[in-house]
Amino acid sequence: MTNSMKCIRCEQVSVMVGPSGVCRFCTDAEAVPSPSVTHAAALDQFRRALDVPPMSPSDPVNHPAHYRTAAGIESIDVIEAFGLGFRAGNAVKYILRAGKKDPKKHIEDLEKAAWYVAREIAALKRGGA
To answer: How far is the C-alpha of 11 from the C-alpha of 127, rounded, in Å?
Structure first.
């Protein structure tokens, strides 16, 4: 079982709460001003920090539902914000979408992510990028 904690800023329960008691969304959004700020506001601030465009309707080509959170943050937003290359970016993509595109392929998505991680590690050990 995963340990969840309540964020001291947005008061949402999350497994992403760090030792400081603040969740990843509040930390990445560069300090939410007060505990009265809602989690939705913290997510909105996080989206602005990543320079994510306003949430648009699901579109199978431009904004597929299996690549984004309920708050509208898409895999590509995270990949670009962290400046990840092809292999690391694909690993993140498969982890974030695991089980969302097709619940029957949850394990397969994670295996694909592991494959990309293994290739990234091998490339780095060879001294490549």
So the answer is: 44
